Amino acid sequence: MASSTPKALATREKILVAADTLFYLHGYNATGLDRIIREAGITKGNFYYHFKSKEALALAALERHFESNSIEMTEHAMKHKPSPLKMLFAILDLLSHRQTMQYKEGHIRGCYFGNFTLEMSTESKAVRSKVQSIFERIREMFSDLLKRATEANEIVPDIHPDETSIMILSLMEGAILLDKAEQKPMAVANAVVFIKQYLKA
User: Fold this and answer.
1) Structural domain tally of the chain?
2) Are residues 44 and 59 in the same domain?
3) Do 69 and 168 lie in a common domain?
4) Which pairs count as long-range contacts for 112-119, CB under 8 Å and 24+ apart, including other chains?
5) 56-102 residue pLDDT tens
6) How much is the pTM?
7) Which residue from 43, 58, 104, 110 lies 20 to 30 Å from 96 (Cα-Cα)?
């Protein structure tokens, strides 16, 4: 088991930061371990001290990316308390804003988790299971906000939170993929408008 000393934790974080960036920019298969090691400024021995394989690194990078995203989404949503519906809308607006910012930076990269799904779902059972778990946690967050919005009479009672959360997640992921294919931040923006209109109907 890797050491938990400050120096060891700092080295592990450098590896994860480098991997996160390179996986997002170039994909999993196109990113070699040597490139990650070079970008992190470590030795190969340092890498294998913390991760037994590239796949193990990918699993840790996925979890780290999810945790970072969750913190950002939660902080953004909390600005709109106590309205659960406005909190949900704030999260969707944040996702749309990210697409716009990536477009302005010159390249819409798509969903980090969706990219891994497209590239690795048939190659690695471990990666597929990790991404499934992450998508389920995102869906549960949507479902919880919808349940609370129903209890607060912000949406009509016949909106089923679990079913609707699947619809929202599916619509957003599909729209993010379309934006990536077209390199225009339009599909996600339109999806957010549709979801807001649907929930307010």
Assistant:
1) 2
2) no
3) yes
4) 112/23, 112/24, 112/62, 112/65, 112/69, 113/62, 113/65, 113/66, 114/173, 114/176, 114/177, 115/23, 115/24, 115/27, 116/23, 116/28, 116/58, 116/62, 119/27, 119/28, 119/29
5) 999 999 999 999 999 999 999 999 989 999 999 999 999 999 999 99
6) 0.94
7) 58
